[in-house]
Design brief:
- The structure is a single chain.
- The protein has 317 residues and is α+β, with helices and mostly antiparallel strands.
- The protein folds into two domains: 9-106, 2-Layer Sandwich (Phosphorylase Kinase, domain 1); 118-315, Aminoglycoside 3'-phosphotransferase, Chain: A, domain 2 (Alpha-Beta Complex), CATH 3.90.1200.
- Helix content is 41%, strand content 18%.
- The chain has nine helices and eleven strands.
- Strands 1-2-3-5-4 form a five-stranded antiparallel sheet, with helices on one face. A two-stranded antiparallel ribbon has the order 6-9. The protein has a two-stranded antiparallel ribbon with strand order 7-8.
- A hairpin with a 2-residue loop joins strand 2 (37-45) and strand 3 (48-56).
- The two termini are 34 Å apart.
Length: 317
């Protein structure tokens, strides 16, 4: 959620004319995240202030986007805390802004979590399981475009720019993951990017899961591993000291299984899932470092964090 596409006030006023949201009051770019352009947008309608998030999609086509926006609406309708996309006057969710697809989504209350508590980890475990169960009734299907094929292709693209240590750890993991049979595990709609900055809390109450633009159909276990790798990770000033809080891991897994118990096959594959989830974000961060994109407000996250996380999982599985 960086700003790669700069929007003027005139452009935004014209864009909002197709929504029943009142008149533009103010807007500002959001620097958090790395994939799409996002703005906070405030409007006034009949004296009432309303708050939204405008997303301009930098990578997805018009044809791809209904899957994500419909999931958001579907989950909100099924009482999963998720931001509701706003319909245009013609009842669609997508418009064009600056020659790119764009959508307006309600801005949820609550704030992001930098240092989640054990209780918040448990809440996320339970809510992710509810998300997975609800999504089994979602009819649209989309493959994971950040799956193992993408990881292999990304390594081929940037491998020459990596250090010998980075090449060794990535090559070893790619070889390991190529032998894992993911297809036999329970599958369905997953978030695929449920880091701490993609959930909003008011105290210990989850007010919303956001940024579903990596959502796809894949193994539920992988989604759980992505979340555990971020929410239960203890970050320190020295990357070499990164470790996991066992209480948070246990709380997240236990709460998840109150809603959807893991199968024996999933339990056996758990170490491999943690490793795959680590590899995916190591490679995406390495790619951003090797091939940075220009933007007015951008963030490049440290790949060394997930190099350490992957090393930890490799050493214990």
């Amino acid at each position: 959620m960086s700003v790669y596409t700069v929007v003027t006030e005139t452009q935004l006023v014209h864009f909002l004319e197709d929504y029943d949201v009142g008149t533009l009051e103010s807007f500002e770019g959001i620097s958090a995240g790395i994939e799409n352009t996002n703005y906070f947008v405030n409007t006034t309608q009949q004296g009432v202030r309303q708050q939204f998030v405008l997303t301009i999609f930098e990578h997805h086509s018009f044809e791809e986007l209904p899957y994500f926006l419909n999931i958001m609406a579907f989950m909100a309708e099924h009482k999963i805390p998720t931001a509701q996309p706003m319909p245009t006057r013609t009842k669609g969710y997508l418009k064009t802004l600056c020659d790119k697809p764009a959508a307006l989504v309600e801005r949820l209350t609550g704030g992001g979590v930098d240092h989640p508590s054990t209780r918040q980890c448990a809440v996320m475990g339970e809510q992710l399981a509810r998300f997975h169960k609800a999504g089994q009734d979602y009819e649209q299907v989309r493959s994971n475009d950040r799956g193992l094929d993408w990881m292999q292709a990304t390594y081929q693209e940037i491998g020459a720019q990596l250090s010998a240590e980075e090449r060794a750890i990535v090559e070893a993991e790619l070889a390991y993951q190529a032998k894992v049979d993911w297809a036999h595990l329970p599958q369905g709609v997953i978030h695929a990017d449920l880091f701490c900055d993609n959930a909003l809390f008011d105290g210990d109450t989850l007010t919303g899961i956001i940024d579903l633009y990596y959502a796809c159909n894949a193994a539920f276990l992988y989604d759980l591993a992505v979340m555990v790798n971020d929410w239960a990770r203890v970050n320190t000033e020295a990357v070499s000291d990164i470790h996991f809080d066992a209480d948070k891991v246990d709380a997240m897994l236990a709460a998840y299984q109150t809603q959807r118990p893991l199968t024996e096959a999933e339990q056996a594959a758990w170490p491999a899932a943690l490793r795959l989830a680590s590899l995916r974000f190591l490679l995406s961060r390495l790619k951003d470092k090797c091939m940075p994109r220009e933007g007015e407000m951008t963030q490049i996250k440290d790949p060394d964090v997930f190099k350490k996380v992957l090393s930890l999982h490799q050493a214990t599985s």
